[in-house]
Write a structure and sequence with these properties.
By secondary structure, the chain is of the alpha/beta class. The chain has two domains: about 5-170 and about 335-355, Rossmann fold (3-Layer(aba) Sandwich); about 190-330, Rossmann fold (3-Layer(aba) Sandwich). The protein is about 35% helix and about 10% strand. The chain is built from 14 helices and twelve strands. It has helices at about 5-15, 50-55, 60-70, 105-110, 110-115, 120-140, 150-160, 205-210, 245-255, 270-275, 290, 305-315, 320-330, 335-355; strands at about 25, 40-45, 80-85, 95-100, 145-150, 165, 190-195, 220, 235-240, 255-260, 280-285, 300. The strands form three sheets. The protein has a six-stranded parallel sheet with strand order 9-8-7-10-11-12, with helices on both faces. The chain has a four-stranded parallel sheet with strand order 3-4-5-6, sandwiched between helices. α10 (about 270-275) packs across α13. It is globular, with a radius of gyration of 21 Å. The two termini are about 30 Å apart.
Length: about 375
């Protein structure tokens, strides 16, 4: 828990759905993530004592597998693992439900994850990959149930783990009616990109497309990438970092559209834009296929090229703001919580049947021995 991202918002939604739960995480930087975590019981691991890991958890890569395997979670009726690679290995005798944001990208989509990475980082990943894939699949086989954020991730989970998964979109926790704080120097009417500094996010493409459209302006939350051709971006492009929720609400309310050319596993920010009545122009790929209604909540970018992004930005559809807001409300925490409770109830019922012998355990595709809930 070291940044303000979609996965962190999902954890907030889980905590709201299951009040009184404690949060177990490897490293925690409260000053860099959402302030709501200040009211939560957070249990960390020994890795949290290393300041460098709190600044960038990727530096802890060689130690995370062992840390999760050795950190015992006791006194739990059930453990929900919000995971994109590590927490599904949590050491517990309780049944585990994995909310999988994506199978470990550094194992199964390494070129996306390592794009732009240094040679030493690539070497470490290559040296560990084989063992970690075995480790990853072994722990995936032990989960009671898999929940995923989109149909594209459900396909990856089936392909990599041999597991069927329930699709439950992550909750939208941003409150549309909260306070709004303007960003100094910004006038309404800009395009908005919300992204972290990862090459597969393709913010560079969006910046180049907007720069080629003299009438457009762009605000990039997370900052502007380095320009591939060198030099600086035009002053029509603005990067902002460390945005509060009040500032984020103002940005959504005052933008013209949300833009993303990223291959997202789900993609929460376009729905947040919809909540404020703003359309989204998104790459026709990944989780965006689940959430964008073409021509109604926005439009698609047809390819990962500057030309395709530019073309899409010249045909942003006119939308009915009230329709967009109503559509986005369907992704609220209340809906997420109800569906997650249904999964939890189903798992606990299955555990009860297993323990009474009325149901037999089943085998995973990647396991030589039978694995079942409540028995690992």
């Amino acid at each position: 828990m070291t940044q303000r991202g979609g996965a962190e918002r999902t954890v907030l939604g889980l905590l709201e759905a299951f009040p009184g739960s404690r949060l177990v995480t490897s490293v925690f930087a409260p000053e860099r993530t959402f302030p709501e975590f200040a009211d939560v019981q957070v249990e960390t691991m020994g890795l949290n004592r290393v300041a460098a890991f709190r600044r960038d958890p990727r530096l802890a890569f060689p130690f995370l597998a062992r840390a999760w395997e050795q950190h015992a979670i006791a006194d739990a009726d059930i453990v929900i693992c919000s995971s994109s690679g590590w927490s599904h290995a949590a050491a517990t005798s309780a049944p585990k439900i994995v909310y999988c944001h994506n199978p470990a990208r550094w194992l199964y989509q390494a070129e996306d994850y390592l794009a732009g990475a240094s040679a030493p980082v690539r070497a470490v990943r290559h040296a560990w990959a084989g063992r970690l894939i075995d480790w990853d699949r072994r722990h995936a086989a032990r989960a009671a149930a898999y929940v995923v954020n989109s149909n594209v991730v459900a396909g990856r989970v089936l392909n990599q783990y041999g597991r069927d998964a329930v699709v439950i979109p992550p909750p939208m926790t941003l409150d549309r009616h909260g306070s709004r704080e303007p960003i100094p120097g910004l006038a309404p009417g800009f395009l908005l990109a919300v992204s972290r500094a990862r090459c597969y996010k393709n913010v560079q493409l969006v910046c180049e497309a907007v720069e080629s459209l003299p009438s457009e302006r762009l605000v990039a939350i997370g900052g502007l990438p380095e320009r591939s051709s060198g030099g600086t971006w035009t002053d029509r492009l603005t990067g902002v970092k460390g945005v509060s929720d009040a500032q984020l609400r103002w940005l959504y309310a005052n933008c013209r559209a949300v833009v993303s050319a990223s291959r997202e596993d789900f993609g929460l920010t376009p729905l947040e834009g919809n909540l404020f009545g703003k359309p989204a122009m998104l790459l026709r790929a990944g989780g965006f296929l689940d959430t964008l209604v073409d021509g109604i909540t926005g439009g698609f970018i047809e390819a990962e090229t500057v030309e395709a992004v530019r073309d899409a930005l010249t045909r942003i559809p006119s939308v009915d703001a009230s329709v967009l807001s109503t559509y986005a409300e369907g992704f609220r925490t209340e809906v997420f919580a109800r569906r997650m409770h249904e999964v939890v109830d189903g798992v606990l019922s299955t555990v009860s049947l297993l323990r009474t012998g009325l149901l037999q355990p089943t085998a995973s595709r990647f396991s030589d021995t039978q694995q079942s809930v409540g028995t690992h």
